[in-house]
Write a structure and sequence with these properties.
By secondary structure, the protein is α/β, with parallel strands linked by helices. The protein folds into two domains: about 1-100 and about 250-340, Isopropylmalate Dehydrogenase (3-Layer(aba) Sandwich); about 115-245, 3-Layer(aba) Sandwich (Isopropylmalate Dehydrogenase), CATH 3.40.718.10. Helix content is about 40%, strand content about 20%. It has helices at about 15-30, 40-45, 55-60, 85-95, 120, 155-170, 185-200, 210-220, 235-245, 285-300, 300-315, 330-340, and strands spanning about 5-10, 30-35, 65-70, 100-105, 125-130, 140-145, 150, 175-180, 205-210, 230, 255-260, 265-270. The strands form two sheets. The chain has a ten-stranded mixed sheet with strand order 2-1-3-12-11-4-5-10-8-9, with helices on both faces. Strands 6-7 form a two-stranded antiparallel ribbon. Helix 1 packs across helix 10 (about 285-300), helix 8 (about 210-220) runs parallel beside helix 9 (about 235-245) and helix 11 (about 300-315) crosses helix 12.
């Protein structure tokens, strides 16, 4: 019998291709059942909305949710009333209470030359971005007229406290908390609450505060400085994508979105790459590594997760590269290489 129930959301673009690769690898390390649902643009085409009630109910009932990619120019519109694939992401995060997004960034020695930064800058970089996921400007009240638009950014003390605890709990040595307290009132509250949680609950972890603009510069000038980066929804979104490029490709980075007791959602940080969809050349490794995060954080299968991550490392060390990494390997060839190492 399958030990864990996984809702799969292939989404758009290359999503179905890379999800199929991840499922092949998962089946090599355990017994799982899968329940596939349309999501994002595919759901808009089928049902008129990016996230249906049925999909939400299925996700709530699952042990974990594995999401591939959403979006594409087909659904781009400046019409505020038009459904957008990304609304499905915000909706499922809110529905499942997924307030913490974890994005590990660890450039692999085999890919150092693929990074736009010098080898000596990224060597031994191993950081984690902890992003608040259900508050801030993305979820604040919005208004729009022909001549005006506004987005409300708001945070409560409990929202900041719970994400700060996640960051401090994950830290080995240091948490770098990101804000814009010199301009924003939400930034001042963020800094005050993070400082209090640190002093009262995690005094043995070093805490430093950085303004988001200076942190963005330091991330490319001295990435080894960072251990855990703690940021709000928008700043975390931006900085985690910047950090992703330390590895040389967005196609390499996984993420985990976790809440309080319900199923987690696991997805690569890259987009749907509609320009290469259907060509069989997409890099499946971020999707496969997201499945590894699911094994570790969703099912407590640490040994299986480590085996999968090690297989990815060895497949790359052997020299295989997809197009985004400067090679010519297909999705299938990269998947077979990981399976061979497993």
């Amino acid at each position: 019998m399958a030990s864990h129930r996984i809702v799969t959301l292939p989404g758009d673009g290359i999503g179905p291709e890379i999800l199929a690769a991840a499922i092949r690898v998962l089946d090599a390390v355990g017994s799982f059942s899968y329940d596939e649902h349309a999501f994002g643009g595919a759901s808009i085409d089928a049902y008129g909305v990016p996230l249906t009630d049925a999909t939400t109910a299925a996700c709530r009932a699952a042990d974990a949710v594995l999401l591939a990619a959403v979006g594409g120019p087909k659904w781009d519109s400046t019409d505020a009333s038009a459904p957008r694939p990304e609304q499905g992401l915000l909706g499922i995060r809110k529905a499942l209470g997924l307030y913490a997004n974890l994005r590990p960034v660890r450039p692999l020695p085999a890919l150092y030359d693929a990074s736009p930064l010098k080898r000596e800058l990224i060597d031994r970089t191993d950081l984690l971005v902890v992003r608040e996921l259900t508050g801030g400007i993305y979820f604040g009240a919005k208004s729009r007229t022909d001549t005006y638009a506004s987005d409300l950014c708001e945070y409560s003390v409990p929202e900041i406290e719970r994400i700060a605890r996640i960051a401090f709990g994950a830290a080995r040595t240091r948490v770098t908390s990101i804000d814009k307290m010199n301009v924003l009132e939400t930034g001042r509250l963020w800094r005050e609450v993070v400082s209090r949680v640190h002093a009262e609950e995690f005094p043995n972890v070093e805490l430093e505060h950085q303004l988001v603009d200076s942190a963005a510069m330091k991330l490319v000038a001295a990435p080894r400085h960072f251990d855990v980066i703690l940021a709000d929804n928008m700043f975390g979104d931006i900085l985690s994508d910047e950090a992703a490029m330390l590895t040389g490709s967005l196609g390499m980075l996984p993420s985990a979105s976790l809440g309080a007791g319900g199923p987690g959602l696991f997805e690569p940080v890259h987009g749907s790459a509609p320009d290469i969809a259907g060509r069989g050349i997409a890099n499946p490794l971020a999707m496969i590594l997201s499945a590894a995060l699911m094994l570790r954080h969703g099912f407590s299968l640490d040994e299986e997760a480590a085996a999968l991550e090690s297989a990815v490392d060895r497949a790359l060390a052997a020299g295989l590269r997809t197009a985004d990494l400067g090679g010519s390997a297909t999705t299938a060839e990269m998947t077979e290489a990981v399976l061979k190492e497993l």
